[in-house]
Every structure is written in structure tokens, then in C-alpha cells.
Specification:
With 984 residues, this protein is α+β, with helices and mostly antiparallel strands. It contains 27 helices and 34 strands.
Amino acid sequence: MRPPVGPPTLTRRTKILLVVAGVLILLTFVGNVIINNYIDWLWFGEVGFRGVFTTVLFTQFVTALAGGLLIAGASLLSFWLAYRSRPVFVPVGRPDDPLVRVRSRIQENLTLFRVLLGGATGIAAALLALGDWEVVLQFLNSSPFGIKDPQFGLDVGFYAFDLPFYRYVLNWLFAAVAIAFLIALVTHYLFGGIRLTGRSAQVSTAARTQLAITAGVFVLLKAAAYALDQYQLLSSDRKAGIFYGATYTDLNAVLPAKQILLFIAVICALAFFAAVFRNNLQLPAIATVLMVLSSILLGAAWPAVLEQFVVTPNAQEREAVSIQRNIDATKAAFGIDDDRVTKQDYSGVAKVPDQTVRQDQATLPNVRLLDPAKLSATFTQLQQQNRKFYGYPEKLDIDRYKVGGKLQDYIVALRELKTSELTGPQSDWINRRLVYTHGDGIVVAPANQVGVPLSDNSTSGGLPNLTAIDLANKDNANIPDSMRVQETRTYYGELIDGYSIVGGSDGGKPLEYDADGIPRSSYKGAGGVPIGNLFNRLVFALHYSERNILFNNSINENSKILYERDPRDRVQKVAPWLTTDSDPYPAVVDGRITWIVDGYTTLANYPYAQRVELGESTADAQQALQRSVQPDQDISYLRNSVKATVDAYDGTVKLYQFDDKDPVLTTWMKAFPGTVTPKAQISPDLSAHFRYPEDQFKVQRELLTRYHVESTDAFYGGVSFWDVPADPTVTPSSPATAGAAQPPYYVLAGPPGAGDTTAAQASFQLTTPLVFRGRDNMAAYVSVDSDPANYGKFTVLQLPPDGRTFGPRNVHDAFNNNGTVSSGLTLLRNQNTAIDYGNLLTLPVAGGLVYVEPLFLERAGGTTTYAQLARVLVYYNGRVGFSPSVKDALDAAIGGSGPAPANPGQPTNPGAGTPTGPLTAEAATAATDFARAYDQFKQAQKNNDYAAQSTALQAMDAAVARFQKATGGTAAPAPAPPPGGTGN
């Protein structure tokens, strides 16, 4: 028989090497932590928010220390008690028994084992506790809501701030007791307090006492959990498909069950404590069985019986109280209560003559032709000036400015440095980090105009009328005063990746590229962390693993390093308690190019309020164009309480209190004093550029599809619910976005629902149509104002319930089914161009609804594809307008003659009188024959086939004659001009 094999032994050299390797690994980890925290310390100092960094760090340290000490203390105490009370005579096993080896090793290295046990459990717990600082700070700085819940009469602040903290503490206590029980069980087993050999298991008195007391404490904690569960019921998801909050079953079965189980848990805990004085574990065993049976019968079976036989047969009646509570709480939690939302019946059919509708002065002259989601490549093509490293986000922004005393909406975008486009020699480290460091200027285009006027009174076609406010143009006399900028260089934006080192020089000459023909400059802004000293250079060289930072001679005592340059990231970092909107936008504010970022305060457990999945609710057909999206997190409270700004030149971050009645913001302002600027300090110019944020509006419109219903019976039945319509302009060939929600649109328009808008003032609004659930017909039109005087005021126009009003999908189909439109589209399409539908706008005018959809052509321009406006589609009362000019399209669809277009150089269409609305079969056939003959004529021209050209021309003439006869007019389905033409 072979002798037992002991554990392998390590040589002295191997032990030394292992120790050295462990120390190096520890130093690497600790070193990275120290370096990262030092870099954050410098960054927070740069932006003036170092108090946020120290508060979070201190809170994390305290919570980590508390969690670590709790778990380590419970582990060591449990082990010490079990080891101290071990039997005098430890059972002897075979030498090769693993238990024997483990026991002997522990006894030989008892001090080391205790250190390892306490260290391992304490460090693990401390790391887990690092992320709990928000719960602690909210509890310590909690503010009352002044609103009591309808069940227990407690302030909502208890559910928002106190209850999560009590749950947090209870969970840690549960973990500590469970770990202590496990360690006691294992230790007693190792050292003979618990023996499983022989005919029956044996448990020593010491083991029984320790385990019984530990289990009793655990059961007492369970009793405390039952007490807290009562309040948690107000956020119950039992009927999540219908509403959130305590249901009839929760209030009449689960709530009493929790209270009974609380007393049973206390009795069971006493039974475990009584086991200390008894020689067996029968009483704890009985108590355990009682707990399990009570939980099954009271906690599960009884609520199921009540739900099945009492609630389900009479659900509308039984749940009426809970549904009403859910409606009231949801409206209050998401800001869609009656104080903010005005509902109005709206026929959708104008009661005035078409001529009066066409004379509208607030909405129709401001119809937005340019789609911000289509023009990024167009801006790039027209403005990059052979500098490919300048670029624009895939989705541009829209804002408004006062020009000549009149409000005008503009498509706006910064001309940013697009680091990813630096190629060839530009992409080496010096050029990427020291030379190409910033963008130049902001580019704007009137949203309701196309065509740049030329000297011969013609226009450049369907391209936006761009104005660049940059180094070369900032002093141009034609730039409106509201857009004049002191400093056009932009060092902070959405497209700049990584860090830049500024302020350097090469032989005393500045390094930073501005623009061709302009001398290079050196950054003079307040932003950035000094990197002139050797220590900081070493730290950043280690952080970025880049030795050039340490050895490059162009970095001098004036140099700074810029990092964390995305405006959304900067705001999120200085205010980690905020949820930032996914779409920051640039504006000229008080002479500075400024990023504006909307910040939200959220809660997960507002009592009785509906729970919303933030990422899902804010997703739409344009999500793929966004640089960032909202996280997948459940919320039951949302407020746009903070407006943040980031200076595009020096990176200065400011947080402004926007909702001074939000108790969540008040709580965070107490936790981080001095970080949020009072609302009174918002300048009028900044306030004039505040937009109602899209993400908040998307959540609210999703809720309004259900929470416009006042009756609890109707709410439960769901028959009156609405839907957010799918975007009809998305083609089925795009599976990633097909069927996705139509985005909301910013428009400059008159008061929604006004009967007479001939003298109304236009305001900047965020709008969306809603359709009946499961149908495409229009149900409502929702608008929220962004102008300072009426900011946040909702108007909900409710269309007749007969469902006869066209929705976006119906209108888009009507466009495509119209004979004139389909013929025109056939003519526009060729192998070098593609049709791209722009945003379909729904606009209430004089009691009716006008739908406007721009049509873009994309063509190859060198290596770049970009869009230009080709046609405008208008739908009104069953009539369709189709023209290169919005004026002609409106006149054709509405009738009459409207005001002159805002841009005198905008082209008109001599064929605008082409009949609109459904064509007769004869007219449609003639239009199709004309299109076919026209294509044949173009092909014959390419082939130099004169006979075929003659035949095609004869066919075109014949088709025109038949078309005129069928329509009773003189208009012909004239072929479209080539992309970029004037249409004249």
C-alpha cells in the first residue's frame, strides 16, 4: 500500500517569486486606482466641481468601510466563537482525509487564517458597497414632497429616500448574518462540533447555541423585511400589464398576510432562541416548518384564491380605487397632470374657407422644409472646404433665433473636429494630439427655406441656405446680432475623440491649426489641466500609455491637456446623480457658442406611479442616428430639473436649477451644496434657447396614450387608448428601424387649436401626432411649448372618435397613391439618384390639419452622397400638393394664394396647378405612359438613336393630350428638372 501523499511543498525561491508577483499585481491595481483618481481630481478642479469628487469619494469610502467592517466583523466573530467552543477531543481521521489536512493547516497558521478570512470577506464587501453612495446621500439629505400616499398617509419622500435606505441596510444585515451562519456551520463541522458519522448526527451544545442564535437573528431580520414589504406594495407589479401599484389583492390579502407573517416570524425567532436552553432542535425545526407553511398559505395561496374567485370576475369594480390612485400618481410623477396639460376637442376639419386657411400667418409661412436627420452629409459637402477632418453629427439640431425682430427656426450644427477622419500624415501623434485640436464655428440654415439666391435672381436649387459663423466670417455684417460670436474655435463637442494637448509651440511658433490662410494659434482658454510640470506629464503618460507626452519638446510650461470633451459626458460626470438627455444641442448664448444639455432627476419607486422603461420609451426611428441612447432602467418619476451648459471653447460647465419645486433636486442640492446655480441667475438669452427635451417628451407622450383617460372603467378596458404612430417614412427595407416610432418634431407654429391664426404669434413647439390603438387614424395631436413665457404647457387636441381623420401612415400612403405624385417620383428616380422621404409634419391650422412632407434626392457628389430638397408634398382635406416650392404645394392642396415665401429666391413651379387628389383611371394611365415615354427618350439620347427619340417624343405628346383631356385642364405631367435645378 502506497503511503499517503501530502500537499506539495514550495521551494524558498518559488515562495519569494510568488510573493513578488503578488506585490506587483497589487501595486499595478492600486497604482491604476491612484492614477485614475488623481486625474479625476485634476479634472474636477479644472471645471470647479471638486466638491462633487470629494463628496462622492468620501461617501464611497464610508460605505465601503462600513460594509467591509460589517461583513469582516461578522465573519471573524462567527469563526472565533465556533473555534473557541470547539470540542476538546477533536475526532481523529485518516492522514489523507481532506478535513484533517484543512484543520491542521488552520491550527498551524491560525493568525494568518483569521487575517485572510477577514480580509477576503471585508474587501469583497467593501468593493460591493462602493456603488451604494447615492442611496446613502439621498437618505441623509432627504426632502419632503408635501404629498402623502393614499394608503398609509406617509410623505412620498419616505418611499423615495427612506425606504430604499432601510432596504439597503437590511440587505447588508441579511448578508452578514447569512455569512456568519455559514462560517459557523463549516467551522463547527471542521472541528467536530457537528458530526455526521455514526447512526445519527451529533451537534454539540456550543454549535447548537451559536447556530440557533444566528438563525434566530436571521428570522428577526425577516420580520423587519415583512414590515418594509407593506410599503413596497405601493409599487407592486402584480398587474403590470394594466397598471402599477397596490391592487385589490395586494391590499386585502397580501398586506394582511405580511402583517401576520411579521408576528409569526417574531414567534419563530423566539423559538430559535429557546433552543439555546434545550437539548434538541425540535422547536426550531417546528418553527421553520411553520414559517414555510405560513409563507405558502398566507403569502401565495390566499392571494391567488382571492384574485381568482373575487377579483377576476369583477375586476373593473374591484380595481377601480387602485386604478384611480395609479392615474393620479402617474400624472403627478411624470408632469402630465391637469395643471400642465390642457385638453381640447378638435374637429380636424376647418370651418373657414380655404382662402382664409391659406392666409394663416403663424404656421404655414414657417413650415419646416429641412429635416435635421437628412442634412449632415449636405452640411459636410458644402462646408468642409476640402478639410475632411471637419464634420457634423449624423443628426443635426434645430433651434430658434430672433432675426430682425422676428422668430426664425434654424438647423444648427457645430463645425467640429472629427478626429476619426484624420488620415495619412495628419494621423500621427503630433498632428492628432497637438495640431488638429479643435473645430471652427457654427453653421446655421433657415429651416423653412431652401435655395441660395444667386446674382441672376435664380437659386442654387434645393440646398440649404447655409451661413457659417467662423474665424473667416464672424465679422460679416450680414450675420444677425443674435448669432454674433466672440470666439468661434470649438474644443468641446460630440465628435472629438480622445485628448488634445494645447498651448504648445514649435520653436516659439503656435502649433494649432485653425483654417487655411489663417496663422496658427495657441489655446488661451480656461479649460484644460496644466501639463507643463514633469509629474503631471508622467502621470498622463502612464494613464494613456503614451511616452510622447513625456518626451515631446513642443509641450512647455503653458501646455494643457483637454480630456472628457463630450458635453454630455462632462455634465454627467459633474452631476452623476442626473440622467442626461441623449441629444445635447449647440446655441449662440450671450456671444458664446454653448452646448445645452438637459438633466433629469428620476426615481424608481414613486408610490402607485406607472413604471416606465426609459431606454424603450425613448427609442424611435432616428435612434440609430444618435450618438448616445438612454439606459435600460425602470423609472416611475421624471423631471427636467436641471439645464446644463458647456462652453464649446473653454469647457466651462454650469448647472442651472430649472425646476425649483422638485424635491429630488432639492435633496441633491443639499448633498452637493454650491454645485447648482439658482434659477434666478439664468440669463434671458440662455432661457430663450431652452427647448423642451425630446427624451422627456417621448416618455410623456407614451404615457398620454393611456393616461388621457379619466374613467377607471375605460382605463381598465383599454378601448380608448392611443398609440404613438410608426414612422411612415421609414422603408421596409430598413429592418433596424421599420415599424419604429415616429420621432417628435420641433416646429415654429401658431397656437395649436386656434380657430383664427391670421394674426397669431408663432412659438417654438415640440409636437407629435397620436393614433387610435391598433389603427392608423389620427386620435390626438400633442404639443408642448418651449418659449419662456409658456414653457412646458401641453396642449392635447383630441380628434373625433369616429376615426375618420387621417394619421401619418394614411397621409403617406395617400401621397404615394396619388397619380401625379407617383408619376413625378418615377421621373425623379434614376440610376444616379435615390428618393429619401423627410419628416412628415402634422400641423393644426384654423381648425383643420395640414400635413407637409419634404422629399429629398440623394446623388453622388465625388465620393460623397448628400441630400437636397427636390419636392414638397402637402395634404389637406383629401387634396395633395406636389411641387418644388412649398408655396405652390400649399396653394395646390389648400387652394387660393398664400403669402410670399420667406425666401424670395425660392423656386416656383409653373406646373403647380397640376390636379391634385386622386386621379381618374384615364389620367393615371396617361401620366404613367408619359413617364415611360420620357424614360425611353432619355435612353435614346444616351444611345444617339434619333429614330427612337422621335418615337418617344410622339408618345409623350400623345400622353400629354390624353392627360389634359382627362383632367379638363392645360397642365401636363412635366418631367422634373435635374437635382439642383431651379424648377423654372
